[in-house]
Amino acid sequence: MPEYRDNPFIAKLPPPMSTHDALLAMAAPPIFNAAERDYPAHLRAHCISRLKGYFEPLETHLSLEAKFGLLIRQGYLCRNPTTADYTRRVREGATRVFEKDLMAGGRSVRSTASSFALIGCSGIGKSYGMARILELYPQKIHHAEPRSLDQVVWLKLDSPHKGSPKQLCISFFRSMDDLLGTRYSAQFGSSRRSVDEMMVHMAHVANLHALGVLIVDEIQHIREASGTGAEALLNFLVTLVNTIGIPVILIGTMGALPLLQGDFRQARRASGLGSLVWERMENEPTWNYFVERMWGYQWTREISPLTDEVRQVLYEESQGIVDVLINLFMMAQLRAIQLGVLNRRPERIDAGLLRQVASEHMRLIAPMINALKRGDREAIAQYDDIRPMQDQVLQVFSDALSCMPGQPVLGTRSPVASATTEKAASANRDVRGILLPVLEQLGLAGDIAEILVAEAEAEHPGLSALDLVGIITAKLRDRAPANPSKKPRKSTTSATKTAKTPLPVDAQDLRTIISAKKEGVSAYDALLAAGAVKPPMADIAS
Question: Which SUPFAM superfamilies is this protein grouped with (predicted)?
Fold first, then answer.
């Protein structure tokens, strides 16, 4: 294609891929060997953790790859370094820097850039899918002619947590410095510079290095920007597309939808921005294809069949969220191996085990999953992030490894068993150190909290801190009165009346002073007369 061949910025990019080639290039299957099923339990737990990097391209990812390839090449059409238009574009950028105004310098060269927003539920594969696509392209290309420069093909930034446009600019300069070895952060990223000035320099640097596409992830964070920060940042990104000619991709959760459906909608229409909304997967052929591909990576001794009941439970407990599905499959395998080692049970994954694992280890996202089951969109909007689930999975694996023996222990106690016992005891101490402050914050007395933790640990050895909290909470709920709104009736029989505690004989005891006061004298006056409290004006008089 002549428009691609004659543009050095495009000619050095990898050629566009067919769907089949993209499917093979983007896939990231875990390392797997059927012989690993014979490994000891603690080694198989490490094998299972390989699934965290598992990626199976679906139709949405292939569509995104095709759209990205078209987007970046079309964005370079109007920025051909062999033409006079490119020189005028660079000169206009210098004028903007001199006048400290993004709109200065005119617009003598039309923009062919186009951008889009990718919105979807957390865990559906947006960021990971984009990362797999970016790996297909070099991030930096050096050109010796017709101009000596380092072309930055793509740059991915995370939106600042407080949505600050200034922080996004600083992050941009730092990323460019890390990639190119420049000092843009020191030159233009000083806190003394205004955000408008930073944006002008950011646009100029992006233009100088022929930035192919700017990806801003976690765009929902800019909802928290103070004042007009969110509007200013979005308008700046639109200016990059319309004026500078740099494509922009926004990635965010469903929490970003209200933001992008506001005033930014008109700007997107004017500049040709589109949007992709990835809903959670339906229980349809695409979902079944993914489950079947994933199900083959089993490290249990026994290969469990994928029955219709198992399929249904996998969908119910994950609600079509790929990341939740993979984590559930990982933890179910780990639990099956644990039961095989500790209880000599067959290492089998069935519907019952999946439900048990989901109930015990996925409490952090249970409100979100339940909201999805109900179809409650207002509730779903409150849970636009499931990243804490990753921490929970790591905790489950570390707890399991700390008490899982490296080999079966038969007869006498072996050194491995002794080391395992010591590690388990240490883990219990760590768990207790975590649980006691949490339970005390919930209002339990320290001594009662210690008793409840000891009971839970004795009844359920080896469980994580989060699981023990759930068990203790259930116990407290079960011990609560059936109808707490009704006060217990006091017994009227003399046999059940509690005898009054005799007062202490110490005359200086406050209770003795108050009980011995004369009729008509207030408790305060009695304490004042006994010298137990100061006269109100004593300090002032002194």
Answer: P-loop containing nucleoside triphosphate hydrolases
- Regarding pTM above 0.85, the answer is no
Nearest to 331 by CA among 323, 321, 343: 323
> Which residue from 64, 63, 80 is spatially nearest to 10, judged by alpha carbons?
80
pLDDT single digits (tens) 489-500:
544 444 444 444
Q: What is the pLDDT of residue 10?
A: 93
Residue of 313, 359, 324, 356 whose CA lies nearest to 338: 356
CA atoms within a 13 Å half-sphere pointing along the CA-CB vector of 351: 9
Which uninterrupted H or E stretch holds 418? helix 415-441
What are the tens digits of pLDDT across the range 39-92?
A: 999 899 999 999 988 999 998 899 999 999 999 998 898 888 888 888 888 888
The residue among 363, 380, 294, 280 whose CA lies nearest residue 329 is 294
Q: Per-residue b/e over 240-279, b at no fewer than 16 CB within 10 Å?
A: bbbbbbbbbbbbbbbbbbebbeeebeebbeebebeebebe
- CA within 13 Å, CB half, 78: 22
- 8 Å CB contact between 206 and 240: yes
Contacts of 379 (CB under 8 A, 6+ apart): 367, 371
Non-local (6+) Cβ contacts of 485 within 8 A are: none
The span from the CA of 246 to the CA of 208, in Å, is: 11
> What residues contact 58, with CB distance under 8 A and at least 6 apart?
125, 286, 289, 290
pLDDT of residue 491: 45
As a whole number of angstroms, the distance between CA 349 and CA 327 comes to 14
State which H helix or E strand residue 276 sits in: strand 274-278
Look up residue 536 and give its amino acid. Answer: P
Distance of CA 270 to the CA centre of its chain: 33
Q: What angle do CA 312, 318, 319 make, to 5 degrees?
A: 80
Strands 248-252 and 116-120: parallel
Q: What is each CA distance from 437 to 248, 391, 430, 440, 465, in whole angstroms?
A: 46, 20, 12, 5, 12
Distances in Å between the Cα of 301 and the Cα atoms of 40, 306, 417 are 10, 16, 22
Q: What is the C-alpha to C-alpha distance for residues 87 and 36, in angstroms, rounded to an integer?
A: 60
Q: Is the dihedral of CA 517, 522, 528, 532 positive or negative?
A: positive
Residue 77 near residue 87 (C-beta atoms within 8 A): no
As a whole number of angstroms, the distance between CA 510 and CA 121 comes to: 63
Q: Give the DSSP per-residue string, 111-164.
A: -----EEEEE-TTSSHHHHHHHHHTTS-SEEEE-SSS-EEEE-EEEEEPPTT--
* Spatial CB neighbours of 78, under 8 Å, sequence gap ≥ 6: 85, 89, 109, 110, 111, 112, 113, 245
Helix H or strand E encompassing 213: strand 213-217
Encode 486-539 in three state secondary structure.
CCCCCCCCHHHCCCCCCCCCCCCCHHHHHHCCCCCCCHHHHHHHCCCCCCCCHH
- Contact call for residues 299 and 340 (beta carbons, < 8 A): no
